[in-house]
Amino acid sequence: MYDDQDIIIINKSPGLVVHPGAGNLKNTMVNGLLFLYQNQLSGIAGKLRPGIVHRIDKDTSGILVVAKNDNAHSVLSKQFSNHTIKRTYEALIWGSLKPQNGKIVEKISRSEKNRQLMIVKKNKGKTAITNYKTIKVFQNTNLPKISLIECKLETGRTHQIRVHMNFKGNPIVGDRSYGKTKKKFKKIDLTLEKKINNFKRQALHAKSLGFLHPKTNKQVFFEAERPKDFNDLIESLNKASI
């Protein structure tokens, strides 16, 4: 964790909710921040979201920036609105993308069937841009094809990477909202099959964040290590694909 007079950088663990909401008023990241910092956080987002400039999904791990005062909050919010924040994610997806490196430009809007989910709609919604590249494809005769990819966002729509990968036909491993919760394989090591099917969240990690510091106006860059569950799954796939 990084901490100065204006910002806090946090590597959020998977499963941790960012701020209180309906049915979950305690055990959130904000509760922890209030315990540590009390009144030393920006109040722009209200009492339930002090200092919260942006968020990532509960089951997504990785890096977040928190504002300690209103000026920092305003400056950072403007950078997010202008899409000048540099954000990089890593994900494990089913199959391999075609082409393996590219850009997805597709509008995203809320699903009419399930208001908690987002979908790609050609003529409706907000433009979403995801740049992606394939880091490695794990495959052999006893392993279903899975790819490790890196995504750089030009926009920050709700569930953007998850929706875009599902649209491409390559949902994120473990994604219980946009992909299959479990898969059956004809030939696979039973230990690896169990590890894949028991992965309790979408395999998505907010790897890095770069922006202009709200006080110094100098470019800063922060990177978060992969959590253990994500790293363990990658190591298992590496061994199985040799």
Q: Could you describe the 3D structure shown?
A:
The protein is α+β, with helices and mostly antiparallel strands and 242 residues long. It has a single domain, classed as Pseudouridine synthase (2-Layer Sandwich), CATH 3.30.2350. The protein is 21% helix and 32% strand. Strands 1, 2, 3, 4, 5, 6, 7, 8, 9 and 10 form a ten-stranded mixed beta sheet that branches. A hairpin with a 3-residue loop joins strand 1 (2-3) and strand 2 (7-12). The longest helix has 13 residues, at 228-240. The radius of gyration is 19 Å and the shape is globular. The two termini are 36 Å apart. The relative contact order is 0.18.
What layout of secondary structure does this protein have?
Elements: E1 2-3, E2 7-12, H1 29-37, E3 61-67, H2 70-81, E4 86-94, E5 101-110, E6 118-120, E7 126-140, E8 143-153, H3 160-168, H4 190-197, E9 204-212, E10 219-223, H5 228-240
Parallel strand pairs: 3-9
Antiparallel strand pairs: 1-2, 2-3, 4-8, 4-9, 5-6, 5-7, 7-8, 9-10
